[in-house]
Amino acid sequence: MGSHETEPSTTLPTPSTPAGRDGLDAILARPGKAVIALDFDGTLAPIVPDPEQARAHPDAVPALAALAPKVASVAVITGRPADVAVRYGGFAGVPGLEHLVVLGHYGAERWDAVSGEVSAPAPHPGVAAVREELPGLLERVGAGQGTWVEDKGHAVAVHTRRAADPQAAFEALREPLSDLATRHGLIVEPGRMVLELRPPGMDKGVALLEHARELSAASILYAGDDLGDLPAYAAVDELRSDGTPGLLVCSGSDEVPELSKRADLVVNGPKGVVGLLAGLAACIG
Q1: How confident is the model at residue 223, as a pLDDT?
Q2: CB neighbour list of residue 198: distance below 8 Å, 6 or more residues apart
Q3: pTM for the full model?
Protein backbone atom coordinates (compact mmCIF):
# COMPACT_ATOMS: atom_id res chain seq x y z
CA MET A 1 0.00 0.00 0.00
CA GLY A 2 1.61 3.24 1.17
CA SER A 3 5.22 4.12 0.43
CA HIS A 4 5.48 7.48 2.16
CA GLU A 5 8.56 8.37 4.12
CA THR A 6 8.90 10.99 6.83
CA GLU A 7 11.73 12.79 8.55
CA PRO A 8 11.44 14.65 11.87
CA SER A 9 9.14 17.52 10.95
CA THR A 10 5.96 19.32 11.93
CA THR A 11 4.47 18.18 8.62
CA LEU A 12 2.71 14.85 8.77
CA PRO A 13 2.69 12.43 5.82
CA THR A 14 -0.66 11.45 4.33
CA PRO A 15 -1.70 7.81 4.82
CA SER A 16 -2.35 6.02 1.52
CA THR A 17 -5.71 4.50 2.58
CA PRO A 18 -9.04 6.06 3.58
CA ALA A 19 -9.05 4.07 6.83
CA GLY A 20 -5.57 5.33 7.66
CA ARG A 21 -6.54 8.93 6.93
CA ASP A 22 -9.59 8.53 9.18
CA GLY A 23 -7.35 7.12 11.89
CA LEU A 24 -4.90 10.01 11.72
CA ASP A 25 -7.73 12.57 11.68
CA ALA A 26 -9.27 10.95 14.78
CA ILE A 27 -5.96 11.03 16.65
CA LEU A 28 -5.49 14.72 15.87
CA ALA A 29 -9.13 15.57 16.70
CA ARG A 30 -9.17 13.93 20.16
CA PRO A 31 -5.57 13.24 21.17
CA GLY A 32 -6.49 12.83 24.83
CA LYS A 33 -8.37 9.64 23.91
CA ALA A 34 -5.73 8.27 21.52
CA VAL A 35 -3.46 5.29 22.20
CA ILE A 36 -0.10 5.29 20.43
CA ALA A 37 1.36 1.76 20.42
CA LEU A 38 4.80 0.83 19.13
CA ASP A 39 7.00 -2.19 18.70
CA PHE A 40 10.59 -1.78 19.98
CA ASP A 41 13.17 -3.62 17.84
CA GLY A 42 13.11 -2.37 14.25
CA THR A 43 10.57 0.31 15.12
CA LEU A 44 11.99 2.44 17.92
CA ALA A 45 15.42 0.78 17.80
CA PRO A 46 17.43 -0.12 14.68
CA ILE A 47 17.95 -3.84 14.04
CA VAL A 48 21.53 -4.85 14.94
CA PRO A 49 23.38 -8.21 14.62
CA ASP A 50 23.55 -8.64 18.42
CA PRO A 51 20.14 -8.03 20.08
CA GLU A 52 21.87 -7.17 23.35
CA GLN A 53 23.34 -4.10 21.63
CA ALA A 54 19.96 -2.76 20.47
CA ARG A 55 19.20 0.75 21.69
CA ALA A 56 16.40 3.18 20.90
CA HIS A 57 17.03 5.74 18.16
CA PRO A 58 18.66 8.77 19.84
CA ASP A 59 15.66 10.97 19.05
CA ALA A 60 13.06 8.44 20.24
CA VAL A 61 12.85 9.45 23.90
CA PRO A 62 12.57 13.21 23.17
CA ALA A 63 9.82 12.52 20.63
CA LEU A 64 7.95 10.22 23.02
CA ALA A 65 8.31 12.70 25.88
CA ALA A 66 6.84 15.44 23.69
CA LEU A 67 3.92 13.27 22.56
CA ALA A 68 3.03 11.20 25.64
CA PRO A 69 1.51 14.01 27.78
CA LYS A 70 -0.88 14.85 24.94
CA VAL A 71 -2.40 11.39 24.42
CA ALA A 72 -4.17 8.81 26.58
CA SER A 73 -1.20 6.43 26.51
CA VAL A 74 1.99 5.50 24.73
CA ALA A 75 2.51 1.74 24.88
CA VAL A 76 5.66 -0.06 23.79
CA ILE A 77 4.62 -3.64 23.01
CA THR A 78 7.57 -6.01 22.69
CA GLY A 79 8.60 -9.63 22.93
CA ARG A 80 11.49 -8.57 25.14
CA PRO A 81 11.26 -8.62 28.93
CA ALA A 82 9.74 -5.31 30.00
CA ASP A 83 12.71 -4.25 32.11
CA VAL A 84 15.11 -4.93 29.22
CA ALA A 85 13.07 -2.78 26.83
CA VAL A 86 12.95 -0.02 29.46
CA ARG A 87 16.72 -0.19 29.90
CA TYR A 88 17.54 -0.36 26.18
CA GLY A 89 15.01 2.36 25.44
CA GLY A 90 16.18 4.70 28.18
CA PHE A 91 12.56 5.21 29.28
CA ALA A 92 12.92 5.29 33.08
CA GLY A 93 12.76 8.57 34.97
CA VAL A 94 12.15 10.76 31.91
CA PRO A 95 9.91 13.82 32.49
CA GLY A 96 6.93 13.67 30.14
CA LEU A 97 6.81 9.88 29.94
CA GLU A 98 4.35 9.43 32.80
CA HIS A 99 1.77 8.07 30.31
CA LEU A 100 4.19 5.43 29.01
CA VAL A 101 3.73 1.72 29.62
CA VAL A 102 5.90 -1.12 28.35
CA LEU A 103 4.04 -4.36 27.69
CA GLY A 104 6.83 -6.92 27.66
CA HIS A 105 6.71 -10.59 26.67
CA TYR A 106 3.79 -9.74 24.36
CA GLY A 107 1.80 -8.31 27.24
CA ALA A 108 2.60 -10.94 29.88
CA GLU A 109 4.63 -8.28 31.68
CA ARG A 110 3.78 -4.64 32.28
CA TRP A 111 6.03 -1.76 33.32
CA ASP A 112 4.43 1.55 34.24
CA ALA A 113 6.48 4.73 34.13
CA VAL A 114 4.55 6.17 37.08
CA SER A 115 5.54 3.39 39.47
CA GLY A 116 8.67 2.15 37.72
CA GLU A 117 7.62 -1.40 38.63
CA VAL A 118 7.12 -4.55 36.55
CA SER A 119 4.18 -6.89 37.11
CA ALA A 120 4.42 -10.40 35.65
CA PRO A 121 3.02 -13.93 36.05
CA ALA A 122 5.13 -17.04 36.64
CA PRO A 123 6.89 -18.39 33.51
CA HIS A 124 5.30 -21.25 31.54
CA PRO A 125 6.98 -24.55 32.58
CA GLY A 126 7.59 -25.45 28.94
CA VAL A 127 10.05 -22.57 28.61
CA ALA A 128 12.43 -24.14 31.14
CA ALA A 129 12.23 -27.51 29.37
CA VAL A 130 12.96 -25.93 25.98
CA ARG A 131 15.84 -23.93 27.44
CA GLU A 132 17.44 -27.16 28.65
CA GLU A 133 17.01 -29.03 25.35
CA LEU A 134 17.99 -26.28 22.92
CA PRO A 135 21.80 -26.68 22.99
CA GLY A 136 21.56 -30.36 22.08
CA LEU A 137 19.03 -29.67 19.33
CA LEU A 138 21.20 -26.96 17.76
CA GLU A 139 24.15 -29.34 17.83
CA ARG A 140 22.17 -32.16 16.15
CA VAL A 141 20.76 -29.90 13.45
CA GLY A 142 24.22 -28.53 12.77
CA ALA A 143 23.01 -24.96 13.19
CA GLY A 144 24.97 -24.19 16.33
CA GLN A 145 27.78 -22.14 14.77
CA GLY A 146 26.73 -18.53 14.41
CA THR A 147 23.31 -19.02 15.98
CA TRP A 148 22.62 -17.22 19.22
CA VAL A 149 20.08 -18.12 21.92
CA GLU A 150 18.38 -15.23 23.71
CA ASP A 151 16.80 -16.15 27.04
CA LYS A 152 13.82 -13.86 27.59
CA GLY A 153 12.59 -15.49 30.78
CA HIS A 154 9.04 -16.09 29.52
CA ALA A 155 10.33 -17.15 26.09
CA VAL A 156 13.48 -18.32 24.30
CA ALA A 157 14.60 -16.98 20.91
CA VAL A 158 17.09 -18.48 18.46
CA HIS A 159 18.77 -15.85 16.25
CA THR A 160 20.44 -16.79 12.96
CA ARG A 161 21.51 -13.34 11.71
CA ARG A 162 25.16 -13.99 12.65
CA ALA A 163 25.34 -17.45 11.00
CA ALA A 164 27.41 -17.92 7.83
CA ASP A 165 24.17 -18.35 5.87
CA PRO A 166 21.44 -16.77 8.05
CA GLN A 167 18.50 -17.78 5.84
CA ALA A 168 19.67 -21.39 5.47
CA ALA A 169 20.13 -21.71 9.24
CA PHE A 170 16.69 -20.17 9.77
CA GLU A 171 15.03 -22.65 7.40
CA ALA A 172 16.94 -25.63 8.85
CA LEU A 173 15.68 -24.79 12.33
CA ARG A 174 12.01 -24.14 11.53
CA GLU A 175 10.75 -27.72 11.72
CA PRO A 176 12.87 -29.02 14.64
CA LEU A 177 12.09 -25.95 16.74
CA SER A 178 8.38 -26.30 15.95
CA ASP A 179 8.51 -29.93 17.07
CA LEU A 180 10.34 -28.98 20.25
CA ALA A 181 7.85 -26.22 21.01
CA THR A 182 4.85 -28.47 20.42
CA ARG A 183 6.18 -31.15 22.79
CA HIS A 184 6.31 -28.59 25.59
CA GLY A 185 3.08 -26.72 24.92
CA LEU A 186 4.70 -23.73 23.24
CA ILE A 187 4.46 -22.13 19.81
CA VAL A 188 7.10 -20.76 17.44
CA GLU A 189 6.94 -17.14 16.30
CA PRO A 190 9.16 -16.46 13.24
CA GLY A 191 10.70 -13.05 12.73
CA ARG A 192 13.59 -11.33 10.98
CA MET A 193 16.24 -14.10 11.24
CA VAL A 194 14.84 -15.20 14.60
CA LEU A 195 12.58 -18.03 15.77
CA GLU A 196 11.01 -17.49 19.17
CA LEU A 197 9.51 -20.26 21.32
CA ARG A 198 6.86 -18.92 23.66
CA PRO A 199 3.57 -19.84 25.35
CA PRO A 200 0.38 -19.68 23.25
CA GLY A 201 -2.05 -16.86 23.88
CA MET A 202 0.75 -14.30 24.16
CA ASP A 203 0.84 -11.93 21.22
CA LYS A 204 0.91 -8.23 20.49
CA GLY A 205 -2.68 -8.25 19.26
CA VAL A 206 -4.06 -9.54 22.56
CA ALA A 207 -1.91 -7.02 24.46
CA LEU A 208 -3.00 -4.13 22.25
CA LEU A 209 -6.72 -4.94 22.43
CA GLU A 210 -6.63 -5.26 26.21
CA HIS A 211 -4.79 -1.97 26.61
CA ALA A 212 -6.99 -0.05 24.16
CA ARG A 213 -10.18 -1.33 25.76
CA GLU A 214 -8.89 -0.69 29.27
CA LEU A 215 -8.50 2.98 28.33
CA SER A 216 -11.66 3.18 26.17
CA ALA A 217 -9.48 4.47 23.35
CA ALA A 218 -11.24 6.61 20.75
CA SER A 219 -8.43 6.10 18.23
CA ILE A 220 -5.32 3.97 17.87
CA LEU A 221 -1.97 4.02 16.10
CA TYR A 222 0.23 0.96 15.87
CA ALA A 223 3.73 0.91 14.38
CA GLY A 224 5.75 -2.26 13.79
CA ASP A 225 8.24 -3.87 11.43
CA ASP A 226 8.11 -7.67 11.73
CA LEU A 227 5.86 -10.72 11.42
CA GLY A 228 5.21 -10.64 15.17
CA ASP A 229 3.43 -7.33 14.61
CA LEU A 230 0.78 -8.86 12.34
CA PRO A 231 -1.47 -9.78 15.32
CA ALA A 232 -1.37 -6.13 16.38
CA TYR A 233 -2.33 -5.10 12.85
CA ALA A 234 -5.26 -7.54 13.11
CA ALA A 235 -6.21 -6.00 16.45
CA VAL A 236 -6.35 -2.54 14.86
CA ASP A 237 -8.54 -3.99 12.10
CA GLU A 238 -10.83 -5.44 14.79
CA LEU A 239 -11.04 -2.09 16.58
CA ARG A 240 -11.82 -0.39 13.28
CA SER A 241 -14.65 -2.82 12.65
CA ASP A 242 -16.03 -1.88 16.08
CA GLY A 243 -15.94 1.82 15.16
CA THR A 244 -12.57 2.88 16.59
CA PRO A 245 -10.48 4.61 13.92
CA GLY A 246 -6.91 3.38 13.59
CA LEU A 247 -3.66 4.01 11.72
CA LEU A 248 -1.30 1.16 10.77
CA VAL A 249 2.32 2.22 10.36
CA CYS A 250 5.13 0.08 8.96
CA SER A 251 8.70 0.82 9.97
CA GLY A 252 9.91 0.09 6.45
CA SER A 253 11.88 -3.06 5.75
CA ASP A 254 12.42 -5.01 2.58
CA GLU A 255 12.65 -8.14 4.75
CA VAL A 256 8.96 -8.14 5.75
CA PRO A 257 6.71 -7.11 2.83
CA GLU A 258 3.71 -8.64 4.66
CA LEU A 259 3.56 -5.53 6.85
CA SER A 260 4.25 -2.86 4.25
CA LYS A 261 1.49 -4.26 2.02
CA ARG A 262 -1.07 -3.96 4.84
CA ALA A 263 0.08 -0.64 6.28
CA ASP A 264 -1.68 2.67 5.80
CA LEU A 265 1.66 4.44 6.04
CA VAL A 266 5.23 3.23 5.48
CA VAL A 267 8.05 5.25 7.03
CA ASN A 268 11.82 4.97 6.77
CA GLY A 269 12.62 2.66 9.69
CA PRO A 270 13.10 3.91 13.27
CA LYS A 271 14.23 7.31 11.99
CA GLY A 272 10.93 7.66 10.16
CA VAL A 273 8.92 6.43 13.14
CA VAL A 274 10.60 8.99 15.39
CA GLY A 275 9.89 11.69 12.81
CA LEU A 276 6.23 10.70 12.74
CA LEU A 277 5.99 10.81 16.54
CA ALA A 278 7.65 14.23 16.65
CA GLY A 279 5.33 15.47 13.90
CA LEU A 280 2.27 14.25 15.81
CA ALA A 281 3.43 16.00 18.97
CA ALA A 282 3.97 19.24 17.07
CA CYS A 283 0.64 19.09 15.24
CA ILE A 284 -1.33 18.36 18.39
CA GLY A 285 0.15 21.53 19.89
Answers
A1: 98
A2: 79, 105, 106, 124, 127, 152, 154, 155, 156, 186, 187, 189
A3: 0.78
